[in-house]
Amino acid sequence: MKFRRVPVPEFDVAVAVTAPGGEDFGELTLRCKPLTRTQVDAMTSKPIDEALSDVVVGWSLEEPFTAAALAALLDDYPWIDLVVWRAYLGRLRGIVRGN
């Protein structure tokens, strides 16, 4: 594959969701837009839920994706924001590496 200077417009981030007790809730796939390094650095001063609302643009759930639905998901599963953010950054780094 040939290198592209301009990143892909959107990419998928798959997150295995487990409850704090270890119960497997399945996998959630989020559609996200990439950020530049400068934008990622700026996100570190924001709360994670606000940062996620800036990058997540869709998902694999049957419920239609909206900002309010994302906020409800993050409220219903208080641990998921960090899991999603880490997965997003990992996938973003993979795109940068060309994986």
Spatial extent as radius of gyration: 14 Å
Question: What's the number of extended β-strand segments?
Answer: 3
Number of domains: 1
Could you spell the SSE succession in H and E letters? Answer: EEHHEHH
What characteristic shape results from the CA principal axes?
globular
Identify the strand order in the major beta sheet.
Answer: 1-2-3
Helix content: 40-55%
Point out poorly predicted stretches.
none
**What is the oligomer described by this structure?**
single chain
By DSSP (H or I, 4+ residues per run), the number of helices equals 4
Strand content: 15-25%
Q: Gap between N and C termini, in Å?
A: 10 Å
Quick overview of this protein structure:
The protein is an alpha+beta fold and 99 residues long. The protein has a 3-stranded antiparallel β-sheet with strand order 1-2-3.
Keywords:
99 residues, alpha+beta, three-stranded antiparallel sheet, 4 helices, 43% helix, 21% strand
Plain-language structure description:
- The protein is built from 4 helices and 3 strands; from the N terminus they run ββααβαα.
- The protein has 99 residues and is of the alpha+beta class.
- The protein has one domain.
- A hairpin with a 5-residue loop joins β1 and β2 (24-32).
- The longest helix is centred in the C-terminal third of the chain and has 18 residues, at 80-97.
